[in-house]
Amino acid sequence: MTEHPFMTVQEAADALRVSRYSIYQLIWSNKLHSVTVGRSRRIVRASFDAYLADLLERGQ
């Protein structure tokens, strides 16, 4: 099964073990890209994966 191209803010928060507010801060600072679908905010999975890879590369 392939991963969906989008993830919810809660899924991103759960994956990083941080609060939803922390994810919104990453969105507001353009570190994560997101789209609005109706009234819902969705994180672009490729953006999340790139952010995570960058964190791991920098060791932070």
Blueprint of the fold:
Blueprint: E1 6-8, H1 9-16, H2 20-28, E2 34-37, E3 40-44, H3 45-58
Antiparallel strand pairs: 1-3, 2-3
GO molecular function: DNA binding
Organism: Nocardia jinanensis
Domain Helix-turn-helix: 6-53
Structural class: alpha+beta
Sketch the topology as an H/E string, one letter per element: EHHEEH
Average pLDDT over all residues:
94
| Distance linking N and C termini | 30 Å
| Order of strands in the sheet with most strands | 1-3-2
Mind describing the biggest β-sheet? 3 strands, antiparallel
Name the beta content range: 15-25%
Poorly predicted regions are none
Share of residues in helices: 40-55%
Please count the beta strands (DSSP E, at least 2 residues each).
Answer: 3
* Count of individual helical segments: 3
- Rg, Cα atoms, Å: 11 Å
What kind of oligomer do you see?
Answer: single chain
The general outline is globular
Describe this structure in words.
It is a single chain. The chain has 60 residues and is an alpha+beta fold. It has a domain of 40 residues. 52% of the residues lie in helices and 20% in strands. It contains three helices and three strands; from the N terminus they run βααββα. The protein has a three-stranded antiparallel sheet with strand order 1-3-2. The chain is globular, with a radius of gyration of 11 Å. The mean pLDDT is 94. This is Helix-turn-helix domain-containing protein. InterPro entries: HTH_17, SinI_DNA-bd. GO terms for molecular function: DNA binding.
